[in-house]
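Job type: complex structure
Entries:
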Amino acid sequence: MKLTASSIRDEIIKGNMDIEDYILGKLELIRKNDKKINAFISIDSEGFLRERARNIKMGIRSGKKPMLAGIAISIKDVISTSFLPTTAGSKILEGYIPPFNATVVEKILKEGGIVIGKTNLDEFAMGSTTEFSAYGPTRNPWDLERVAGGSSGGSAASLSYGAADLSLGSDTGGSARLPASYTCTFGLKPTYGLVSRYGLIPYANSLEQISPMARSMEDLALLLKVIKGYDEKDATSIPRAEEKSYEKFKVCVIEDLVRDSDRPIKSSLYNLLYKLELEGIETEYRERLDYINYALPVYYTIAFAEASSNLARYDGKLYGKMGNSETYKKASIDTRKSNLGLEVRKRILMGVLTLSEGFKNEYYIAATKGRRLIRDEILKVTKDCILVSPVSPILPPRIGEKIDDPLKLYAMDVYTVIANLAGIPALALPSSFYNGLPIGVQFMGKPFSESSLIRLGLIIEKITGISGVIAGG
Amino acid sequence: MKYKIGLEIHTQLTEAGTKLFCGCDSNYRKYKPNTNVCPVCLGLPGALPVPRKQPIILALAVAETFNCRIPESMVFTRKHYFYPDLLKNYQITQYEKGGGMPVCLGGTLKYYDPDLDLWKKVKLRRMNIEEDPGKTEYSEGNILASEFAYVDYNRSGVPLLEVVTEPEIPTPRDARKAVEYLLLTMEYVGAMNPRLEGSFRVDANISVEGGERIEVKNIGSTLDLERALRYEIFRQRKIVEGKGVVERETRHWDPVRGITKSLRSKESEEEYLYFPDPDIPMISTEPLLKEVRKRNITTPEKIMERVSRLGVNRRTAWSLVTIKACAETFLEAVSIGADPIISSRILAIDYKGHLRKSGMNLYKRKNWPDPIVLKKISDLIRNKVYTYDEIKYNIIPKLVNDPKMIHITLPEKASPEKLITEVMNEERKAVWDFYQGKKEALDYLVGKVLKKAYGKAMDPKKVRKLLEESLYKSSNIY
């Protein structure tokens, strides 16, 4: 069954589908399935959803045609909502209800979207499997023994079992694309500055973007259209961003960006490239890039440094309950120790180390220099060529399989961090299945070339025939 | 024994209108605790700092005024330390290392010493724009006696300009004069009102030859600055003379007891984990400087020059300049034709004295005379309709209460001769005392004549002169 947000929206606008019935159907699906999948941290109340559905219905009757009319949207719980708690997957933000909406949430509400619930993630988006959530791991609807990827695992899972028809994730080093590839969904990390970060609880500010997620290319493009644009509340958002599309497609494969992937992943990619060539799209093979091998250490050094700073505020003053201790300092330490997870504390410690006098030059400063080299190289390559690579070098791991080996865990991000370091847009979409498990493919373009990526994505969607697919559906 | 003084002056840009990174009010004093706040200055997760234009323009204006080397672009930096009044546990500031860049990299603070009538200089190391933290208050007033501490974040995010001098200020008195001049300049620039409570704080570094550098924190007034420095020089000299060791430390100024107390020893640099704030792109200074230059900024030095060139003596000129409202009144009056010498004397000496005596605010422009009135009055004196003293005694006291006085009504001129005769007849004892050589008897008699003339214009100097003449004329009677 093909089920896309765009087709639902059209049925709703035409009056062929009742928003209230549709939303209550979603709620029913969540009640039935989410106990085992755990895609959601919080779900909106039935009463509130009914009222919202009725309001949108009334708007449509009076002639409005909002872009997201009635569509059930799930939102990663790291994006602030004033009507639902926003936990960032952490115990320290348990019960925190922000006094404001993220800019993207405002835009979604304005276009008639219905926020059905907030989705699970690795604590503060730090992870690639959604196993580091304080609210338990999210399971992959395609295989409940496996992870849904991370950190936007809850968003991806909610789409793939049909609990939501659009979703917002965030992508710091692949956090939207990796779970998309593990769940047969679509994720797009926009050019840095295209989408406002206002209201996104920061992990690594200079790398991340709020990212649309969906079950089809058309849906993905629709959600991006709604959320993008300059926001005066975010100094890093870009005013008057102009589209810079490619005149004609050329897809470049770099051997360095494929070599270490598992066999099913590699063959899926080459198979797709062959079909693209048949469609008349030029492909070019290249051996290597000079600085790409530094991408992973550079990425993690910068991400941890920024994270250690961003997370300094969670000390019991406003978040988490500060106990009684002899000193203020000890009270802060105790609060952090008992409310932040091990992985988060690990990353904070490493971040502090990389910023400390005596280490800063070797780590943080060196990483910023490395980042510049990587960015320049990637910007040069993507000028006339869309880079293609796997999203993840492996198939979705089993729950618990990777969590004990941090280096293997971090290596899952090897292909995705590049786009974040360079600030360029990157699209992940399904390419095939292997033994019933989804495999994804990634395309990276030059800054503000989203429209080209979307056009290419539509071609690929036609080639693979994978669109609007629901797990077990 | 030689010593070196260097200062870090934290000034609030109180007139910026907004906080540094959000739209909350820069003048936080009028609000109930924790009501002048928003997600940004509370550092809520996901709220983002967006640099506001006005604080940055004002900081650049101050930097321009002190001939600063202003970099092409500035970069805000995060400085980390865990403290209750700092919600994010990092302060957004500017720092010249690690990829950061402040608003000013070296300049000159030229300040005026009115006693020596001399312009002096101290080199500035840098200026940086940063956000003020919140404020901690203790239930019993101090940390030791209190069970509770309360934090008010109304001040959190208020723009500060930190001005750092080289350690080359010669004396505690110079330190005071330099800071006073800095504050006055910032007031002229329109950046701050230094009379607002807590609008500036000074940290002073001082090292006496033979000892390490001591930092004294928490100095809240320029008078305290001079006192704290004198105290520290005395204390450190005693230690060095007694062959003791002055170790590097941070001390706290206690203005009530007039002493400094050790706060912590500073064995090594504190670890602040500085790095550029990724939420704030670098800011090009050039377009902002263009706006600054359009504003035609005045400084006390420029006003001092203008006033002096009008023929006003330096002492009176400085007295005008030290109060911006007074200097503005003067310049406006002169521009419409008031006599500069007469006007400056009225404003800087007699009017100012009356304002002070009546406890009125010298810094409010509306408490100073309307320039048109001032011109009319100075014309009366210049055209010799009345003497300066007649105006001084009869008009100025009334003008203080009615600075926009529309009808300058001088009472009819009374003839002093008749009153003098009357007084001399009534006050025979005093007259006798005068002849006995008691000079104060003359003052008494002058007073009596003026009292009789109450409500009528009379020049006391003239009365004195006439009275003396009459007394000598009558001396043969006695």
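Summary: The CA atoms of residues 257 and 389 of chain A lie 6 Å apart. The domain at 5-242+452-464 of chain A is CATH 3.90.1300.10 (Amidase signature (AS) enzymes).
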